[in-house]
């Protein structure tokens, strides 16, 4: 562990600073497919009783009309974040009519690509823009890949904590620039160490055989309907998932925020020949992608972690980052654990807090050219064969056993966890850390190993296992209906969101082509 980490931990352990560690903020976004009673993709529209997918703050859709996304607010205690997520699930189940929320990350048996419904957001310009963007994703990557679900974990440190660290560093920059540079440092360390999260929390070692649509692959057959890799942790995050030659050169090594935003600006402004050949509209004049650039919008960039800033109405993410700097980070590589009703539990959340704080506080030099590639290679090796006995990764040009490196990282994260526990006055983070140490000592305890063990034990296909878990979780959520006042609050929010969508549609005065043109020009304003 670096001397800098020791120094910063000692600084934050001082009586005046220690309470700041309990003021970090957390938020969770959980995606899940709606399926029917037979475990097939739901073809029904987004339930009106859930409100408007365009304007509801907690319940929306991601790519498909059937791919729900639940969004919590932020809170200093992840217990409250998970409690809110649980409540959203309970409300949703109260309004689903004969449908269920698919339990794992990898999707149910999917219909033909043409029959996978793209999310609809109404007739407003902003709603149509969201739909056309998703049409572009279908054109560029296919619909099947867009039906994979995950969990996004949002995390930020309190402003006062950054001020303490900046004063200690003697950094003369503005508070905004210092904060942004330190979040970029966190991201660099995350790139170095995120393979550990895949080993500990990866939960997608198998998938429905139909998912690959007959494409060539290197997976093995577990049964007639299930493909897998014996040592995989997260096929969701492997090269079976999102990949596109247009994005091949988009691997920012996060030297600083300006270089990151410039690389994204270049991607959303530079035409890509294959997309130019397709055009923005089809032969009938219907929109099929927002533009022909490497990326249609910033969010099309598929990364394991993103620097984020809450945007104002009509503001694009790049504009917000340029104007006001990084506000929080979004971890995007987490699988949904099919053994957990919410897909994530408190132990995982607390470990993530310690892990991310470790990444923020430890020394984080810029990634050298070779280190960038090694970080990517280590990540991909772990998602495909992370539980293979004796597996070695690359660190500073040398091979190191995964278990050795994991143990060293957990030692450092343990020091952060101990300080977090001092701040909270309990042992919650140490307990979460102990759970992860046990997984490194015995890979059979990892979610990925447990999934494969369950498939072998039960003799079920992946989809039958997933549906069994889906029904079990449905019973969990429906066993305890929401209190009347909570239900009424959700119903009121649903009605309000529908009214907001209608108002947005009524307020449009610009034709859609002009709206898109203005949207494209907005980054240069």
Automatic annotation (TrEMBL):
Q: What class of enzyme is it?
A: ligase
So what does this thing catalyse?
L-cysteine + L-glutamate + ATP = gamma-L-glutamyl-L-cysteine + ADP + phosphate + H(+)
* Assigned keywords, A-Z: ATP-binding, Glutathione biosynthesis, Ligase, Nucleotide-binding
Which pathway, metabolic or otherwise, does it act in? Sulfur metabolism; glutathione biosynthesis; glutathione from L-cysteine and L-glutamate: step 1/2
What InterPro entries does its record include?
Gln_synth/guanido_kin_cat_dom, Glu_cys_ligase, Glut_cys_ligase
EC number, UniProt record: 6.3.2.2
Looking at the keywords, is Ligase present?
Answer: yes
Judging by the UniProt lineage, the source's domain of life is Bacteria
- Cellular component per GO? cytosol
Gene3D superfamilies noted in UniProt: 3.30.590.20
Q: Name one GO molecular function term.
A: glutamate-cysteine ligase activity
Similarity remark: Belongs to the glutamate--cysteine ligase type 1 family. Type 1 subfamily.
**HAMAP family reported for this sequence:** Glu_cys_ligase
Protein name per Swiss-Prot or TrEMBL: Glutamate--cysteine ligase
What organism is this sequence from? Stutzerimonas degradans
């Amino acid at each position: 562990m670096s001397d800098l980490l020791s120094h910063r931990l000692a600084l934050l352990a001082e009586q005046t600073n220690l309470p700041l560690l309990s003021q970090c903020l957390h938020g969770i976004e959980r995606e899940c497919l709606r399926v029917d009673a037979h475990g097939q993709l739901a073809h029904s529209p987004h339930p009106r009783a859930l409100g408007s997918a365009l304007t509801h703050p907690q319940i929306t859709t991601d790519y498909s009309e059937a791919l729900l996304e639940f969004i919590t607010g932020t809170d200093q205690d992840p217990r409250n974040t998970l409690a809110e997520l649980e409540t959203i699930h309970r409300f949703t189940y109260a309004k689903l009519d004969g449908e269920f929320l698919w339990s794992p990350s990898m999707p149910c048996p999917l219909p033909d690509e043409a029959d996978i419904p793209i999310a609809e957001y109404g007739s407003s310009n902003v709603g149509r823009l969201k739909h056309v963007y998703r049409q572009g994703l279908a054109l560029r990557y296919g619909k099947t890949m867009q039906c994979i679900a995950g969990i996004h974990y949002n995390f930020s440190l309190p402003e006062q904590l950054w001020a303490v660290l900046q004063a200690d560093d003697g950094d003369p920059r503005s508070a905004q620039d210092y904060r942004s540079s330190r979040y970029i440092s966190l991201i660099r360390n995350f790139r170095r160490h995120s393979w550990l999260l895949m080993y500990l929390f990866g939960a997608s070692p198998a998938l429905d055989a139909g998912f690959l649509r007959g494409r060539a692959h290197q997976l093995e057959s577990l049964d007639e309907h299930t493909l897998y890799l014996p040592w995989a942790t997260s096929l969701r995050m492997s090269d079976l998932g999102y990949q596109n030659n247009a994005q091949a050169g988009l691997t920012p090594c996060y030297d600083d925020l300006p270089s990151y935003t410039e690389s994204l600006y270049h991607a959303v402004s530079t035409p890509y020949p294959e997309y130019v050949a397709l055009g923005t509209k089809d032969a009938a004049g219907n929109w099929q992608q927002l533009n022909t650039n490497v990326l249609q919008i910033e969010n099309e960039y598929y990364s394991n972690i993103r620097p984020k800033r809450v945007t104002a109405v009509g503001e694009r993410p790049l504009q917000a980052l340029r104007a006001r700097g990084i506000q929080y980070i979004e971890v995007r590589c987490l699988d949904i654990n099919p053994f957990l009703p919410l897909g994530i539990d408190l132990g995982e959340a607390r470990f993530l807090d310690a892990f991310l704080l470790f990444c923020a506080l430890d020394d984080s030099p810029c990634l050298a050219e070779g280190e960038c590639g090694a970080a990517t290679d280590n990540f991909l090796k772990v998602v495909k064969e992370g539980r293979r006995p004796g597996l070695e990764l690359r660190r500073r040009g040398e091979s190191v056993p995964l278990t050795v490196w994991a143990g060293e990282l957990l030692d450092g994260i343990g020091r952060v966890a101990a300080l977090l526990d001092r701040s909270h006055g309990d042992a919650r983070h140490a307990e979460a850390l102990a759970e992860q140490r046990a997984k490194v000592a015995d890979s059979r305890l990892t979610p990925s190993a447990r999934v494969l063990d369950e498939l072998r034990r039960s003799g079920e296909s992946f989809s039958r296992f997933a549906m069994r878990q889906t029904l079990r979780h449905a019973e969990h959520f429906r066993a305890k209906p929401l209190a009347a006042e909570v239900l009424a609050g959700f119903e009121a929010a649903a009605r309000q969101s529908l009214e907001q969508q209608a108002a947005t549609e009524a307020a449009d005065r610009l034709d859609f082509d002009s709206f898109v043109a203005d949207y494209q020009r907005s980054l240069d304003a």
